[in-house]
């Protein structure tokens, strides 16, 4: 069991910076998800933890000891790959036994460990099969078995569920989470799927453009995104953003965006220096905005998307007949009947508003404020 | 890019990835270079000397051999024949190779068997290729006269390997041997053409001929060039088939340049002259192939927009060697 | 879904391809089953008593004319010599190329392109261009008249091609499998041995066959380096029977039989491994390579 420290790590390929001064502390037995869009550097980071890539500069430490130049076979890790990567020429049994054989364990012990790993993942019946005879979910279990059998101190997962269909993905999510509880090892899990991140992680590291954007618990990431990038990336459907400016008249502050005006209570954002000229971005999650009510703005229904439990309404403030309008998504009751082009009032509850600086930093809620 | 991993520091970690690869590849390349480049340097030295085999003496003559070669009508003749042989072989290989590939690209019962059959001429040596075609064109008992003479098309004992025709027959034999390689290149390319394109073209009412010119050909353009280069290089540098089939005859009508060099070497023991001629041959081969390669890389970049991860010359140089 | 007219066209094409490929074989095989007396009457005739005596003669069985006896024996010996030369060349050449192809196909390293280019350029050289220096150098090293010089030459000519072919093959294998092997405790060579080589076995088999055929079929170097010696291989030995060889009266039926016999091993290999060989992307492994 190890704590993993990524200390100011850079990875460049020629002129391309894949990972930029990344620092990350992963505690012993913690489940950390590296979350970000494809090409953000999260997989490169994982590869460096694994030893499949060598950092251009910086350190990777396992329990305080630098390992960045150790080849993967000399680190105490296992890894589950996006492509699952079972050895096609070996049986399930041999796939699982392979790490132990490489470690030259005694035959009897190999056998008992392979069988107990297979038991843990409920694949005892498949041990004699070849990978091509398995379903996608079974292959994933075998891959997990191969990772588990060595009892390593760090488990690495490189988007292991993205090759599976939606239903299986949900099952395996639970499975991996249970596995973490049972094994009590350190898990580092790379994904671009924010649902996976939110459901499984102890802590999420949101990475974009090779840089760490925020490193916090799922709740914190969702409730208090550090910046626009995190706010955009986490949450489905994504948060609504409305660019606008702060205006002061007669001591009253309001935010004026396209088709929307929100009066702000005293003390929220009143800063005389910002009056009139200061650009801001308002953000609100679709489930927090409401139709009807006090009407902070009036828009037109552009389209509706019923998803059974909810109804998502795309509202535009650009006028009823605009082609390619900017859309504002609102989650509402599934029994609401709305026609396209219908005029609707939109209300934005103050307590659920976010404000971001144009450069992306979160302005409101303020850091530290509850 | 290549150097990114190389900066790694290694103590207990052993070789980095790039050091590991460089060690292996360096050794392999060095081995080859030593066995090939050293003799070439040695032959450059020989080409500047007059060698007397019997007296075991040699004296420096500088560029004399080269001057002599360029003035020798036999050399000009041999080069012309080489180019002629190459040109005929290239045209026939493209046509026959593509023809075979188009047939093999269609599904029909027995296609698997035919695929295997097509490969057979490629597996046969050039010496045996020559044998087989000798049994076809021999004037006394050859198969061609055996069929055509009774029909009155040719006179009995018609000489197919006359001074004018021999080069064509050798080229045909050569194409028989090498076209399968081209055919499989073409076949691989044909199979990458998305079937939906053909379906779309049929919906758009394109006939078979239109489909070939508007869909098939644009897709395999690059492979046409590869086959072109492969056959050119092979035909130009080849020796075995011509030597086994005609030995350059009748007269000197099929005496390609490598055959002339062979005669300089082993019939006249003119080592200096022969090595000088070798350099001329290498020169022409390089000019020919480089020209194609330039076209090839240009095409490659244009049609595939693939970032070249290996030198431009590489694909065709290697493919050329794939002929056995 | 071909129209009848297209069906006819396709079958005509298929028949033409088959005939084009097979008729030269058929003619020579037909000749090899005749007596010389029959053959001079023409190849195109009905032979109701095909004989395998020409083949038997090569193995020293049955009646052999005195003139031809020596030649027949030479073919038998050349057959064995060709095996002795080509099998080790193919084995060692494939082994070297596995390492080379793996390194080129799997790793980034400095001078990669330069080295690849150097290796491949050696393949454009016309063989005749190096024959004199090889002959002189090998003669002084006592490597003429025995298989060593020949094997060395063949080795250097197969390695660049096979390296190239296997580079493409290794490059096309899923990289995650190798990574998984590293994670599971293999060194680089361990991953090559336990995972990559088993996965590349079709490509490796094809590479081995290609090398074998190359060494089996080559004429020029064989003629110069072992021709006329006890180590003479098949190509020069066959040439000794051919009508182009001055000073001999060619026995054509023997010539046919010997040619057919010599070509049986390559044909069998080509047939058995046809899928592997044509499955290789010989022309351009780069397009199938991940970046």
Q: How would you explain this protein's 3D organization?
A:
The complex is a heterotrimer of chains A (370), B (324) and C (291). Chain A has 2 domains: 4-229, Rossmann fold; 240-364, OB fold (Dihydrolipoamide Acetyltransferase, E2P) (Beta Barrel). Helix content of chain A is 23%, strand content 33%. Chain A is built from 8 helices and 21 strands. Chain A has helices at 42-50, 92-102, 107-120, 136-148, 166-183, 194-200, 218-223, 228-233; strands at 4-13, 16-26, 31-35, 57-62, 65-66, 77-80, 154-158, 186-191, 203-208, 211-216, 240-249, 252-257, 260-264, 279-284, 290-291, 297-306, 311-316, 328-332, 343-347, 354-356, 362-364. In chain A, a hairpin with a 2-residue loop joins strand 9 and strand 10 (211-216). In chain A, helix 2 (92-102) crosses helix 3 (107-120), helix 2 packs parallel to helix 4 (136-148) and helix 3 crosses helix 4. Chain A is elongated. Chain B has 324 residues and is mainly α. Chain B folds into 2 domains: 1-47, no CATH class; 65-321, MetI-like (MetI-like fold), CATH 1.10.3720.10. Residues 1-12 and 303-324 of chain B have low confidence and may be disordered. Chain C is mostly helical and 291 residues long. Chain C has a single domain (65-288), classed as MetI-like (MetI-like fold, Orthogonal Bundle), CATH 1.10.3720.10. Chain C is globular. Chains B and C meet through helix 1, helix 3, helix 4, helix 5 and helix 6 of B and helix 1, helix 4, helix 5, helix 6 and helix 7 of C.
What layout of secondary structure does this protein have?
The complex is a heterotrimer of chains A (370), B (324) and C (291).
Chain A (H helix, E strand, L loop, with lengths): L3 E10 L2 E11 L4 E5 L6 H9 L6 E6 L2 E2 L10 E4 L11 H11 L4 H14 L15 H13 L5 E5 L7 H18 L2 E6 L2 H7 L2 E6 L2 E6 L1 H6 L4 H6 L6 E10 L2 E6 L2 E5 L14 E6 L5 E2 L5 E10 L4 E6 L11 E5 L10 E5 L6 E3 L5 E3 L6
Parallel strand pairs in A: 3-8, 3-9, 6-7, 7-8
Antiparallel strand pairs in A: 1-2, 1-4, 4-5, 9-10, 11-12, 11-14, 12-13, 14-20, 15-19, 16-17, 16-19, 17-18, 20-21
Chain B lengths: L16 H31 L1 E4 L4 E4 L3 H8 L1 H32 L6 H13 L2 H12 L5 H6 L17 H25 L4 H9 L4 H30 L2 H6 L11 H10 L4 H34 L9 H8 L3
Helix pairs in contact in B: 1-12, 2-12, 3-7, 3-9, 3-11, 4-7, 5-7, 7-9, 9-12, 9-13, 11-12
Chain C lengths: L3 H29 L3 H4 L13 H6 L7 H41 L5 H10 L9 H10 L6 H26 L2 H9 L4 H12 L1 H17 L2 H7 L7 H8 L10 H21 L1 H6 L12
Helix pairs in contact in C: 1-13, 4-7, 4-10, 4-12, 7-10, 7-11, 8-9, 12-13
